[in-house]
């Protein structure tokens, strides 16, 4: 075990994103997707700098749309902080879900930041091409001057959540799907997670979202660590919801589990769900797909009546953080949310005295 992935609430240098690139994914919502990416970047930049990667030829567009979003939401910075910049850099990319195609950052044994470069195959070869995305982590690490740690295992960042103290939570639905690592056993997958991310214990939830066919059930749609031994869990209160029974099965696993330090888990239920429509297609916005910038929590919302209660649950679970909702119906239409399009860049060195 030569490196350890920090928790998502650890201090970071910036947030990384990729500008929308695959027009065929978004169809008639492509321009609206760009506006929502810019809105998310703007909300996060109130708390920490944002580095937006744009495919060659798209940097000027990204700067223009992000600048427009900044001007339109200037009041946000006044409520969250002084505000930071959105830097745009060009690198080849096929798609715009950096949580999954980018590196997973960790700290080496001496406290220096490294990037773990897992293989990427577009969520089980669902979208072509993905060659540039599979190479993106390596190129980005070179750009950042961060040492690269290679893994031959296919893994997306949205498939794991960690406490930074030895425990990782994932779903069987995703990591054991045959379209990722068909030649690896469950034990071999767990061993590679321990080796590359520095975890000592893996908690396997049986289910991701039933309708999450795009990622095959990433954990960032159903559960998230928000503090040591504290997990927010999606728990739809409507018995007609397709995940009503499935999320209660996940809950039972968490209630029966202890973390790597032997602690029982504090469970925070997030019962609210919200829906909308984009281009004639019904979509569900997942409140649990949030991002934790320095001092904040940026949450996907729909603009519906359920938003207020969901934001209140997260504010209670995350004392001391400013909780901000960003409308993301189009992101849900594309298959994800705020967490899916972001990746935290930790500080270059870990504070070993904290």
Structural features, described:
The chain is of the alpha/beta class. The chain has one domain (3-346): L-arginine/glycine Amidinotransferase, Chain A. The protein has twelve helices and 18 strands. Strands 1-5-6-7 form a four-stranded mixed sheet, sandwiched between helices. Strand 12, helix 10 and strand 13 (266-270) form a beta-alpha-beta unit. Helix 2 (30-45) crosses helix 3 (59-72). Residues 74-81 have low confidence and may be disordered.
Structural topology:
Layout: E1 3-4, E2 12-18, H1 23-26, H2 30-45, E3 50-54, H3 59-72, H4 74-80, E4 86-90, H5 98-101, E5 104-108, E6 113-119, H6 122-125, H7 131-144, E7 148-154, E8 161-162, E9 167-171, H8 172-175, H9 186-197, E10 201-205, E11 223-227, E12 230-234, H10 244-255, E13 266-270, E14 274-278, E15 281-285, E16 296-301, H11 307-317, E17 322-327, H12 329-334, E18 343-346
Parallel strand pairs: 2-3, 3-4, 6-7, 9-10, 12-13, 16-17
Antiparallel strand pairs: 1-5, 2-18, 5-6, 8-9, 11-12, 14-15
Helix pairs in contact: 2-3
